[in-house]
Amino acid sequence: MYSMEEHQKQRKRFYGAMSDFWADLYGTEYALLDYYTLTAREVEQIRTATNRIGHLYRKTARLLRQLPDETLQLLGFHPEALPFLRISVLSAETVIARADLVHVGGTFKLIELNADTPTFIRETFDINEHAASFFRLASPNKGAVKTVTEAIQHAIWQSYRLLRRDGEPYVVFTSHDDHMEDKETVRYLQRISGIEAAYVPLHELYIVSEDIRLHGGGVLRRGLYDAEGRRIDVLYRQTYPLEHLVEDRSADGTKVGVQLLELWKKREVALINPPSAFLLQSKAVQALIWGLYEEGNPFFTEEESQWIAEHFLPTYLDEEYFLTKRTMYVQKPAFGREGDTVVIKNGNGEPIAFDSQQTYKDETPVYQQYVPLPETVVKTVNGYETVKLLHTCFLINGKAVGIGLRAGGMITNNLSYYLPVMMKG
User: Fold this and answer.
1) How many angstroms separate the CA atoms of 280 and 115, rounded?
2) Which of 154, 91, 122, 45 minimizes the C-alpha distance to 400?
3) pLDDT value, residue 13
4) SS3 for the chain, per residue?
5) Amino acid 1: pLDDT
6) Per-residue pLDDT tens for 324-354?
7) At what angle are helices 302-311 and 284-294 packed, to 10 degrees?
8) Domain coordinates of the chain in residue numbers?
9) Burial 195-204 (b: 16+ CB within 10 A, else e)
């Protein structure tokens, strides 16, 4: 029998044992002490869909690098990012990416791919395993953290070798210091990396853009440095979006973000995720993929076209299709996150639901067919609540591994719950 008071105590004990985890955010419940069960077939469907989506994006990346600057700007890319987007340095376009999926019509369709700076990592690969032990159930992510560790290690060493330096690399994990979720996500990745590394908040990093000859006769090499003056070889920026980076300026107006990318281009520092991940971040890439499929372009094989038909939603750079069909659709910014600036519209183009945050209102808009998220009932500290489910699956070095669930309203945002996921059987 469910007792709200007993549930509150259990939840407090359970998440109280998870050090440096954000079980509550913004003063409200974030991590639920409950679970949702997937069948083995659903788990396999999610992984298959995510692997196919990853393949389609990797293939499209080759096309994107051949497009003129004007076309890339139409897809929402910042002009100052363009000189860096066509450079591919790692075997994988992105080390850690996350696909957000909706279960509809017996399959899973892509809502969006966060290729550049996905979070929800610790919840999926760590907390979910503790929840499985608590509920004495099987997790679809058992042992998956090993794949993440190997991917991080591979990316760091592969990136460092490109710098052509001797000795051990100085690896720094970074984030904004005042955002607990970002900071502890990054520190979690640092812990599981198995590599000797430091955590340095973004505000303590500084750039030397050109070699400086010192009074004593030595030279301060151009590069990225920490507050103690140590030159950084590899910077792991898991939660720091590249679209923010290109606009970063110092107090005197210097474009320090662009300077950092120039240092990366000249192989003075390695960045993970690499800028190639940002090339796949724009939601307008979904519109490009859908457009090529819809026109029957031979760029995609017959099998790949079948994958697009099954796993993609109609997505465009204008509203005309949906207004003509008079069907519900979603307007979202090309580079938005956590539901910020998302608007759901009816067939007349009138808003019927929108996120209160409008951080990305000046970004290139993308329009996508609306499909309702499936519903379930969950236990919260305030009683039972009906929620809508967003399925997620990570691409780790291009391989589908790590399934998660967000639970919330029509728009999944930063106030939506984390709901542990288990397997039947």
Assistant:
1) 6
2) 45
3) 97
4) CCCHHHHHHHHHHHHHCCCCCCCEECCEECECCCCEEECHHHHHHHHHHHHHHHHHHHHHHHHHCCCCHHHHHHCCCCHHHHHHHCCCCCCCCCCEEEEEEEEECCEEEEEEEECCCCCCHHHHHHHHHHHHHHHCCECCCCCCHHHHHHHHHHHHHHHHHHCCCCCCCCEEECCCCCCHHHHHHHHHHHHHCCCCEEECCHHHCEEECCCEECCCCCEECCEEECCCCCECCEEECCCCCHHHHCCCCCCCCCCHHHHHHHHHHCCCCEEECCHHHHHCCCCHHHHHHHHHHHCCCCCCCHHHHHHHHHHCCCEECCCHHHHHHCCCEEEEECCCCCCCCCEEECCCCCEEEECCCCCCCCCCEEEEECCCCCEEEEEECCEEEEEEEEEEEEEECCEEEEEEEEEECCCCCCCCEECCEEECC
5) 60
6) 999 999 999 998 777 778 999 999 999 998 8
7) 130
8) 317-370
9) bebebbbbee
Give the count of beta carbons closer than 10 Å to the beta carbon of residue 306: 13
Q: For residue 356, give both structure tokens.
A: 């209160």
pTM above 0.90, yes or no: yes
How many whole angstroms separate alpha carbon 118 and alpha carbon 115? 7
Task: Note the pLDDT of residue 424.
Answer: 86
Q: Do 32 and 379 contact (CB within 8 A), yes or no?
A: yes
The answer to whether 406 and 412 have CB atoms below 8 angstroms apart is yes
Residues 6+ away with beta carbon under 8 Å from 305: 293, 296
Whole-Å CA distances, 337 to 119, 140, 252, 372: 10, 26, 29, 19
| Length reported for the chain | 425
Query: Among the listed ranges 62-76, 165-179, 238-252, which one has the minimum average pLDDT value?
Result: 238-252
Count other Cβ atoms within 10 Å, centred on residue 20.
11
* 92-147 pLDDT per residue, tens: 899 999 999 999 999 999 999 999 999 999 999 999 999 999 999 999 999 999 99
Highest-pLDDT range among 64-68, 86-90, 335-339: 64-68
Nearest to 325 by CA among 333, 316, 334: 316
Q: Is 26 exposed, middle or buried (0-12, 13-18, 19+ CB in 10 A)?
A: exposed
* Core vs surface per residue 155-192: b (16+ CB within 10 A) or e: bbebbbeeeeeeeebbbbbbbeeeeebbbbbbebbbeb
